[in-house]
Amino acid sequence: MGNAEGKDRGILLELCGLQKEFDGFVAVEGLDLTIVEGEFICFLGPSGCGKTTTLRMIAGLETPTSGEIYLRGRKINDLIPQQRGVGLVFQNYALFWHMTVYDNLAFGLRIRGVSREEMDKYVKDVAERFELESLLNIKARRLDLSAMQRVAVARTLLTDPYLLLFDEPLNNIRPGLREILRAELKRLQKELNRTMIYVTHDQEEAMTLGDRILVMNAGKVEQLDTPRQIYLHPRTLFVADFIGRPSMNFMETEYEMKGEKISFKWNGFSFNIEKKDLDVEEKHLKGKKLIVGIRPEHILLADEAEKGGISAEPLSAMVDLIQPLGAKKIIDLKSGDHMVKMVSSSEYSFKRGDRISVIFDPRRIHLFDPKDGRVIL
Amino acid sequence: MEAISEAKTKQGLLFTLGRHLNRESVFKLSLVAPLQLLLWFLLIIPFIIVIYLSFVKWQPVFGSWTEAPWVWFENFQKLFTEIRFLEALGRTLAIVVIAVTLEFIFALGLALLFTRNFFGKRLFTSVILYPMMLPWVVVGFIFYLLFLDHGLVNSILTTIFGATATISWLRHSVPAMSAIILGDVWQWTPFMFLLLYSGLSALPSEPKEAAMTLGATPWQIFRYVTFPSLKPVILIAIIIRALEAFKIFDLVFIMTGGGPGTATETLSIYIYQIGFRFGQLSYAAALAIVILITVSIVTRLAVRPLFEKEG
Amino acid sequence: MRERSSGRVSAQVALPKRRRWLRWGAHWLIVLVVLLFFAMPVVWLLSVSFKPPQEWQAFPPTVIPRGPTLNNYLLLVNPELPKGSASYMLRVTEPVTKSFINSLIIVPIATLISAMVGFLAAYGVSRYRVGGDFMPFFVLTTRMFPPVAFAVPLLVYYQNLRLIDTRLGMIIIYAGFTVAFSLWMMKGFIDAVPRSVEEAAILDGASRWRVLFTITLPLVKGGLAATALFVFILNWTEFLYALIFTSTRSITVPVQLSHYVGAVGRFYGPQAALGVIASIPAVIFGYLIQRHLVTGFSFGLIRK
Q: How close is the nearest chain C Cα to the Cα of A74, in Å?
């Protein structure tokens, strides 16, 4: 965990067994997390999974039902938000609408009694960095969304917090602008070397922004890992399904060991995989059913796979629907009664009704235990 | 046979009638017709009559009001020099300013207190809201009882401060005014509380939370975040309450009747006396008009900041 | 960026337990004081209404009467009772039944009229902008003026129409002067009903009247009830116009009370009893409104 860069960075935040219940409803359950300085962590999950609640507990706006929070080694459970040194950027920015941009930015300094000249210097400084100089005297409610977001972020920076928290700040922004602001945020983080926690329900966002991602569902932690690991090695069905667009194909299969091969049978459609390709230990396989997962981008045309040196038993399937997406195509393949999605950027032109030969890249097959959704491979 | 055809024609008539009634313009008209009726009957025509009356000199004993002599602005001139009028005006303004200020402060404090949740909050809210519901005359009576020479208030004072601590509340100008103001505050603080509390609850919580994370103390949050956002509501509440307070009548009438003498005479009581006890209706009409105009102008001025803000 | 060490709010430990208790205690003290302040006068009224004459001006004062009695209440209905008591030599002037009957006739009818008229007009203003943008403001202005101002010409007017001291006359006055309020409140509630529901019905072929009564009306039932309750309280407690325009035939409860207070002699007991009874309808309706109270005000007022 943590020291991927090889730099020696201290632990900034530690959450131990954090739990939050509202009137019997468990919003967050047994959360453990350690963050080092300078990290950009994303909390990812569907609405209601507890990510915002966790964020608010870190900020001090909610009190945990049980568990501890340590900031820089000190337990901060009993500290009010004012005392924590944590900055929070809200989903709808929560600017002080009746104040000017200048006053919004200067707020943190003003209440600390910083002198006029100093305050002025710092505010102007930050305003310049965020391209807000021309807007300093404008009332916050008149700003456009991108300016609002910049003010919201700039405002928190001026109080020099140890940790910056973001609650889905790009939610209300239209798609084109969203990517631009996203990139800016990432750049900013690296430049300032601040530790940031970013909450979002958009998996694409989390994958592009985070050094590590905490995937949550219904109050529980599904996986905490780097984006690459989460993509290649999802630990649970939920994570596998949630990450990646189009999402992973899942097939509930019955399997049978047949010598060197494992045969998977899926509703009249069967395929065999070499045992050696599957790097899985027999003892882990229990019961007769397994959920096989494969990402659309890992279903390859048999010929291409051959050329790339990947060999496996090809399957024959019928093309049911082709959705072109610029350089790529999403192809719905039908075999028997069931559909599998595939993504291909090949130049091959086939049309609906064609029968083609594909293989599942054996290096990228995931096996899940149907009972608890945990991964086996 | 004939009955049926007759019925059919009736039906046909109703149908066309119905169709006409359904047309938008007729519909709109009929919606507001009853309102217009009432308004014209009770407001507009009397208004015209008032204007007429203010220009004549008339009392019911003189006979028919349509034959009263025209005196143009004589009533108005008299009005501006009449000391009793000016005194009544002064007293009314004093009451309005003091009472509304006190009500505002108490109500704001209460509203802030209520932002936290505490045990028994609902019951407490119910108790607080009752004073507004009571008939004003009953409130007047209650406070009359309390402030009698041998009433509860004096009893409490003597218990605490000794036998000489009684005040003849209702017999002198200043104590009587104080008693009246207290009655008004008692009755109407809940109203202000309601308005302010609604406004307060409607405020979004995020800016407050943002202020918290930025390090602001509760007082600072109130001063920089809550209060400024509350200003429009505060303004409305004060204006509404002030307008109502200006008209104060019931309370004073029951508690002191305007007395002793004219010591607690407010504007409404003054006009009442002039018009309905002494019968100088045309003079009263002039008074009414002057007040109408003044109140309109003042309200217009007071309300303007509200409309500016929304722009 | 700023130096890390300067100006940070000192990260002290949270308020020690003792101070927290202090705050909580102060909170409750204030709550108690306020409660007392608002409850006391009413309690006193109730108390006096059950006291026999000896205790009316007793010192030291007591909240609970030493010799509670219902006489004060009975006296209201039948001034003859009880016989033989010296302090009842100065009797109450008249039984209160008449004023109650009058109020119970006048107020509900006027309230109903006011609510319905207000509702119709509010619908017009809300959906069809009748009266233009000026209407709401105009309506507000009718509340601005001291009632006495209108009483003057109204008296003249009513005299000619022979409506003085009649129930009909009072009904008209009460309906007319509260209709502005009804309109204001109902407009808020009607605004909250999305037009799309009505438009769908119109497209289905319903006439406008039908839409109004079968679709909109049920949806604002709550608001209508709240408005009606409010107006009821306003009318029930109204004093000035009743004072001027009623005499012996159509006297209402508030005026009756003022007679008692103004009458010669001191019989606080019956006066208090009357006060209590006069308040009961208002209190009951007030209780019913409580749930609507906050929403009603936010709709009506913030929507200015």
A: 10
Find, in chain B, the residue whose alpha carbon is nearest to that of C49: B142
Looking at the fold, whether A310 and A216 belong to one and the same domain comes out as no
pLDDT of A272 strictly over 60:
yes
Q: Say whether B144 and C261 touch across the interface (CB within 8 A).
A: yes
For chain B, positions 45-84, list CB contacts with chain A under 8 A. none
Distance from CA of B85 to the nearest CA of C (A): 14
The secondary structure element, H or E, covering residue A217 is strand A212-217
Split into its structural domains, chain C has a count of: 1
Residues 131-190, chain A: which have Cβ within 8 Å of C?
157-160
Angle between helices C253-262 and B136-146 (to 10 degrees): 20
Does ipTM exceed 0.85?
A: no
**pLDDT of B101:** 94
| Residue A201 and residue A275 share a domain | no
Q: Calculate how close chain A gets to C119, using CA atoms only, in Å.
A: 36
| C54-89 residue pLDDT tens | 777 666 667 777 777 777 777 776 665 554 443 443
Q: State the smallest CA–CA distance between residue C2 and chain A in angstroms.
A: 7
How many domains does the structure of chain A reveal?
2
CB contact under 8 A, B204 and A95: no
Domain residue limits at B208: 82-310
Residue C125: exposed, middle, or buried by beta-carbon count in 10 A (0-12, 13-18, 19+)? buried
Residue C9 touches partner A, C-beta closer than 8 Å:
yes
In a domain, residue C19? The reply is no
For B210, which of A80, A83, A88 is closest by C-beta distance? A88
d(Cα C128, Cα B62) in Å, to the nearest integer? 49
Residues A237 and A324 in one domain: no
Domain termination residue (choose one: A200, A225, A242): A242
Least confident of A300-304, B250-254, C296-300: C296-300
In a domain, B73, yes or no: no
Are the C-beta atoms of residues B287 and B306 closer than 8 Å to each other?
no
Q: Please provide the average confidence, as pLDDT, over all residues in chain A.
A: 83
CA neighbor of A169 nearest in space, from C205, B210, C121 = B210
**Averaged over C133-156, what is the pLDDT?**
74
Orientation of helix B281-310 relative to helix C147-161, angle to 10°: 130
Residues of chain B with pLDDT under 50: 1, 310-311
Q: Does a structural domain hold residue B74?
A: no
pLDDT score of C2 = 39
Considering the domain boundaries, does residue A361 fall inside one?
yes
Regarding whether B86 and B142 lie in a shared domain, the answer is yes
For chain A, say whether B217 makes contact (Cβ under 8 Å). Answer: yes
Q: Do A192 and C1 touch (CB under 8 A)?
A: yes
Interchain contact, B207 vs A61, CB within 8 Å: no
Which CATH number fits the domain that encloses residue A360?
2.40.50.140
Helix (H, G, I), strand (E, B) or coil at C158: helix
In a domain, A376, yes or no: no
Of B39, B126, B143, the CB nearest to C290: B126
SS3 label, residue A339: strand
What is the reported pLDDT for B20? 57
Has residue B141 been placed in a domain? yes
C-beta atoms of C14 and A80 within 8 A: yes
Q: How many residues does chain A have?
A: 377
- In the prediction, which pLDDT does B311 show? 36
Q: Can you read off the two tokens belonging to residue C232?
A: 């009821």
Question: How are strands ordered across the β-sheet holding A74-75?
Answer: A25-36, A11-22, A66-71, A74-75
Provide the pLDDT for residue C89: 39
Tell me whether residues C153 and B125 touch, CB distance under 8 A.
no
Distance of CA C93 to the CA centre of its chain: 27
- Assigned domain for C287 exists: yes
Q: SS3 for C6?
A: coil
Is B203 an 8 Å CB contact of chain A?
no
